[in-house]
Amino acid sequence: MAETKSGELMEKIVSLCKRRGFIFQSSEIYGGLNGFWDYGPLGADLKRNVKEFWWNTMTRWRDDVAGLEATIIMHPKIWKASGHVDTFSDPMVDCKTCKARFRADQMNEIPCPQKPSKMSNECHGEKTEARPFNLMFETTVGPIKTDDSLAYLRPETAQAIFAQFKNVMETARQKVPFGIAQMGKAFRNEVTPRNFTFRSREFEQMELEFFIRPDEAVEAITGTVARPLGPGHPGEPQPNWGWQMWHQYWVEERIRFYENIGLPRTTLEEYWQKPEELAHYARATVDLLFKFPFGTQELEGIAARSDFDLSQHQRCSGRPMTVFDEELKAAWPKLDPARQTELRDRYRQARLKYLTKAGETVEAAEKQAQADAEALTKGYYVPHVIEPSAGVDRLTLALISNAYCEDQAPDEKGKLESRIVMRFHPRIAPLKVAVFPLLKNKPELVAKAREILALLRPHMTAFYDEAGAIGRRYRRQDEAGTPFGVTIDFDTLGEKGPELKDTVTLRERDSMKQERVRIADLLPLLLEKIR
User: Which CATH code for domain 2-88+135-321+382-395?
Assistant: First the structure.
């Protein structure tokens, strides 16, 4: 029963998204293209609001994060260094009967082409053995298609941040710890796109790479490495934080972000990956999961990625990714010799572990690890990184799913009727306010409504609607998720007495309560409510 209700809910959400202009199937007039989606007027504004709030939260309101906007197509050696060329694949099987191709781990979750929100295994034909399928889209650069012209559409936005790490650090005048944030398109040739926009072939990411000192450097500078004492936000960053504190900090910061756009902590789950589930370079990874109608799925991952990424690009490009830390250089000579030896050996072992896993010979790895440990004593190291990585499209779908609500509302005659309302947080709602003249055939009402629209539009996304009964207009805006409605009536014109002249009716979407507000107070009142 629960599964049936969830499927029905998802169908309603998909239907509303098309009806109200949130999301359309890409290339629909030609039969559509699986795994690609277009955002209509409301969806485009919803996504833009989400991205703008993320950008403000991550960069504009912080001193320790700089922004980047890199190209979608980059040098193919970047993807070789990151491991995507060799390992970025899913196990794939083909059906010998219907010729369809599926991910081996999703054989019971195959999307129905007619109803993308439904999942069913439609074909029971004989399947081939599973084999790797690289998820990167290939393209060529230049007029002639050769092996040398091969390139890829980026499958993630993170690698450009690592490749431009030194340039950004120097030009932004940052020093470790600091972060680089980027938003942008990414592409993955998913074998089985599914669950509406949740798993698509073209999508947007919002990623932060936050670079920190290795624990050995922290301990040399501050004398100790702080570690979490328990769950919860650890507070403002401190000089003695090691990677565990920074990781917990960013987990909590990301949860705060979701709470601030209308996804309370109760709608999220924290999943701490088990040691056997971690990527070989990761020290810890927390997946933030959301309870979608089709199941609890990942919204964002926050990974402690050690120094793997910068080390890989340093090793493969031949360009140094080390930083010089003046505080470390000054602190090292003051350490007790025994402590110096301990920290140097720990760092050497960590570098040796990376180099060995990267494929270096034992002799070469030992030699390089020893050199890296000596460099540490002079103030040089490869920064470690904490990576919060979120999907814009998944988050947009989560916001739509969370906002969808059906309740009862009175019509013009006071009779209760069903109402669909999208309860978006005003901060990210695609439309903030709708302006309604009570009647469209009264020029004085229309003129005053247009005047109020002009007052509000420079400060927020406002919508003008004069068609139909006022109750029907309210319902349309409820479905669009518009948190506030402003109605201009004959009281506004002072026809029923001077005490109500230049006032309007302000309606609140969720409670449907209405109050009279002076036009002079309207703008500051709305600005306070939507920020």
Answer: 3.30.930.10
